[in-house]
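[scheduler] slot 2 assigned
[scheduler] job type: sequence-to-structure, two independent chains
[scheduler] chain ordering preserved from manifest
[runner] begin chain α
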Amino acid sequence: MTDSSLLNSELELEQQEEMYQQLLLQTMGKLQTETPDSKVIRPLPGMCVKTFSEPAKEKVFINICQSNSVPPPPELTRDELVQLLQSEDPSGYRVPMSLGEPHTEADNNSQQCTAYDVVINQDFYQKCQEDPLFQQFIILVSVEGLENKYSLELNRDWKVLKNRKFLGSVSEQNIRTKSRPVIQELQPEKSPTSSCKRPEFTLFVEPPDRQPECLISEIKLPGVTSSRSLVLDVGEDRLVLTARPSLYHLDIFHPFLVDQENSVAQYNKSTQILTVTMPVVSSS
């Protein structure tokens, strides 16, 4: 999977034994050079949603498109969706999607407006068409995704256009492909990590009341006496940690795109907590 441990050995300075130790992170550079990071797809039209930017009240159109090249989200029933929307943290359920760049179009009055293309899995799109609750859910997820990626504020009083599936012309999109083969390699059927425990962890953003700058993960690792036994991999929207030999294994996705190269991990031997600080680029 990777050619070396992604955590360097801890600093062996006696006077710093009780301090946080800086651990250099590498990403999956070798894997990325061996497999293509993305591929070009041409999505199918789906539905066109009209809303407005805030506070300027400029027209914004969201083309929600469909493609089987985009992986489906985990299975979700209507009852589970209701519970999810009522929960305090619905971000735990992630819908894979490709958020396209803004493009300028003309509306029915020949007025200039902005359109965004959002591509989701074709089967999940059909599910959203069959149930109004799922339709409103995918529109909300698309709106929030665009807001986070492009620092927008969009009006929640949107309208689905009845006689238009797409504003503008359908164009090709590049979608990332490296996540899926990585999942297959990290979790083979007879995984050596199957006997490992899943450690307790927390995820939070800083600052909590503004646009997130850093995503911070604190992972409790009781019994781990040295960072030498830790193998850590930080991806764009994923964190994988293994504590050897067969102690802990953690594999989580998060709703942000982070700067892998500038992420930093620190292991506190006294508290036995690993802190991973990841600069946020945008929401995924």
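[runner] end chain α
[runner] begin chain β
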Amino acid sequence: MSRSAISSRASADCGAQDPKWASANIGVFICLKCCGVHRSLGTHISKVLSVTLDEWTDDEINSMIEVGGNSSANEIYEAFIPEGFSKPGPDSSHEERMKFIRSKYELQEFLKHSLRIVSVSGRSSLQSSLSQKILDSFGSSNSSSKMEGMVEFIGILKVKVIKGTNLAVRDLLTSDPYVVLTLGQQTVQTQVKKSNLNPVWNEELMLSVPQNFGALKLKVYDHDTFSADDIMGEAEVDLQPLITSAMAFEDSTMFANMQIGKWLKSYDNALIEDSIINIVDGKVKQEVLLKLQNVESGDVELELEWIPLDQ
């Protein structure tokens, strides 16, 4: 089965013409803007592939053919759109796309009632069972939504630990600070800066981002030679704004330098000021200034950069 068997004229979710992307497990074609939202759902909901650049398996091609195109898929996925709930168009905002696509595929709010999965343990099982029922509704006996071979990570996070300011004293008059970053089961750390309460690291650390990512956790420690290292404060970074923005502007090299998102300072986070997400020279970056928590003083400045897996 060749890739030429796959063709479509409009995006399933917004109607944009000549889409170049597809959700292989859902069986629909999508445009670049909708593609970013689909990727943010995770491959357990929507496995996004390029129509022209990615290698397709026979099962993925057959699954697309069995669904029969966007119109056939939408007859099921959009069977019961509530009155007043507008489908986004090619020029709709990212927020409108996100709300509609999540409601359509993740929350199943528009599905035929006979296809809705009421109680399944875990989201992966939910989408797997749902995909099988969708395929069955098209008269297919092929299960193309098995979880084997799914991508474990969705991207790479590069964290530049820039500097600390007015860090806490943990030795006689000073401290020997270093920063530890944790994401899921991964932990990385900076070098130790001897006798320095205002250390400049400018050190880049890399972490893989799993599908079900949580917050990036940061802790600062004072290095001690003959006793346990003392903690000098901690903070968490919400990665959702960065990743959602990056997914919306998937090929960031196509865009000029501009702001694409923001993580807002609030009473329940460690931000000193709003954290801006920008495209800079084709890269998605975020500036983060954190007030360390559970300590008498100290700030840490970071720069985050999102790196897609295909780079």
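[runner] end chain β
[qc] chain β: Residues 1-5, 117-129, 139-151 have pLDDT under 50 and may be disordered.
[scheduler] slot 2 released
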